[in-house]
Amino acid sequence: MKEFFEGMSTFEQAYWIIAILGSIIFLVIFALTFIGASDVDMEADISDVDADDGGVGFQFFTFKNVIAFFTIFGWTGILCIDNELSTIVTIVISSFAGLLMMILTSLLFFWMHKMAESGTLKIKNAIGVIGEVYLPVGANRSSIGKIQIKVQGSLRELEAVTDSEEVLSTSTLVKVVEIISSELLLVEKLSN
Hints:
By secondary structure, this protein is of the alpha+beta class. The chain has four helices and five strands; from the N terminus they run ααααβββββ. The protein has helices spanning 2-6, 10-35, 63-82, 87-117; strands at 130-135, 145-151, 154-162, 173-181, 184-189. Strands 1-2-3-5-4 form a five-stranded mixed beta barrel. 23% of the residues are buried.
């Protein structure tokens, strides 16, 4: 390996080191993704959390994206040097290629995140929805019942309690007034 680097300029050596290290780390991340260990989260996020969707949303500066940048930056730089381009042109082209790869990687993970969450129930969407009691709901939160409501386009069966003085029996129409927890709703009898 020493002989390989001896005939190179410092500029070319730097690109080779960046390309090799970036590729090794990229292959490790790639392998971890396939064995399911990518959720160990090597994400060094600098972006803000999107409170609206409860998730992270679009992330540009992540560990994976930075590794993708340096991997493509290094290999593109080596190609530019092999084609005898000037130092400035090499830096510009390799930086552009690295940034392009970073953007593509960000978009890929953003798209995958959106695909994974598209079927997830966002319980806050149940507030104000009218439904029907499926299993009786005890008065004054004495027992948990179940209601059927249409949330996010599909009929759902969710647990509910009420502050009402009367038991809400099966087939009673109710309105969701509050989210108590991720799986429990507070409902009230719908006024006629």
